[in-house]
Design brief:
single chain, alpha/beta, UDP-N-acetylmuramoyl-L-alanine:D-glutamate ligase, nine-stranded mixed sheet, four-stranded mixed sheet, 11 helices, globular, binds adenosine monophosphate
């Protein structure tokens, strides 16, 4: 069983071609919906009373929502703007709203989850909630610049409590104050997690475990519309795949990273969550085959 905890948001996303206002987003949203193509994830998250019914229905179609709280107040909001290459995003606003003083707890029905993903969220909440599960077999977490800048020590503490850290290259540099990605990964591994995945956007990712580095390319695309949530979709696919196989050995973790690249590529092809919600399982199988062709020689 897989539980995903993290932000559920109303995002304002400014791309060169289009501005999306208050659309369904959040790290847990992307991660859990991505994972739902492999297993049925349980979500722990919070939204405000302003969270639209149509977005609630999208979550309901993919996820177990017994852990979703609706509180008095406004939903977490994120506002970000991409440059013309779509590879650099500037955060314009982060409004925590109901997420700010959320006191999450794990519903009884979720306590048996053996796979747990702590999506991008307040690292103090993440570190607290992971302790409430009865028997976690494999856990992963992610973070973002906002938390590294405001709660760095808590980010490190959260990382000590998981098996794997998934983080993008710029955030890995910011967190460790190192430039070389191998050095960044080693430093994070020294804090405790056994696996580190450094995501490099369209260029794929590096998976580190002990002295091994597994490098995987991104799936090459002609048209990218909105990269928001690609990293979360990547991580969701990884843990969703592992939970579906009920395996956590290194060879399966490598395969999960390939699924991560494939699901990340779907996420960026359409605006917002549409890259994932319109997918069929057969699209994933087909793209996996194309990916295999792309990297085999
Ligand atoms: P990504 O593009 O993978 O970095 O993920 C973007 C998603 O993360 C957006 O849908 C945002 O709602 C969410 N997000 C942005 N900033 C934060 C934050 N400080 N804490 C939690 N989630 C966030």
């Amino acid at each position: 069983m897989l539980t995903v905890f993290g932000s559920t948001a109303l995002d304002t996303i400014r791309t060169p071609k289009k501005v999306l206002k208050d659309v369904l987003g959040g790290a847990a949203t992307f991660a859990a919906i991505s994972a739902s193509f492999f297993t049925k994830p349980s979500l722990i998250a919070v939204v405000g009373e302003d969270f639209p019914k149509k977005y609630h229905n999208i979550l309901k179609a993919h996820l177990d929502l017994r852990g979703l709280s609706v509180l008095n107040g406004k939903t977490f909001r994120y506002d970000g703007k991409y440059d013309k290459t779509l590879s650099v995003r500037k955060t314009l606003k982060t409004e925590l709203n109901v997420l700010g003083d959320f006191k999450p707890s794990v519903p009884e029905e979720y306590k048996k989850s053996d796979f747990v993903y702590l999506a991008n969220n307040d690292p103090e909440q993440n570190a607290k909630i992971i302790k409430e599960f009865d028997n976690v077999r494999f856990s992963m977490c992610d973070t973002i610049e906002f938390w590294i800048m405001t709660k760095k020590n808590s980010v490190i503490k959260m990382m000590k409590s998981v098996d794997a850290v998934v983080i993008n290259d710029e955030e890995a540099r910011l967190l460790t104050k190192e430039q070389n990605l191998i050095t960044c990964a080693k430093k994070i591994m020294d804090w405790g997690p056994k696996y580190i995945v450094i995501k490099k956007g369209e260029h794929g990712s590096l998976l580190f475990h002990e002295d091994v580095i597994f490098s995987s390319v991104g799936f090459s695309l002609k048209s990218v519309l909105d990269p928001t949530g690609a990293g979360d979709s990547f991580a969701g696919a990884m843990i969703g795949y592992l939970a579906s196989k009920k395996k956590t050995n290194f060879s399966e973790i490598k395969k999960s990273v390939v699924y991560g690249n494939v699901m990340g590529s779907f996420a960026v092809e359409r605006y917002g969550i549409n890259g994932l919600t319109r997918l069929k399982r057969s699209d994933i199988t087909k793209r996996l085959k194309q990916y295999e062709k792309m990297v085999t020689f």
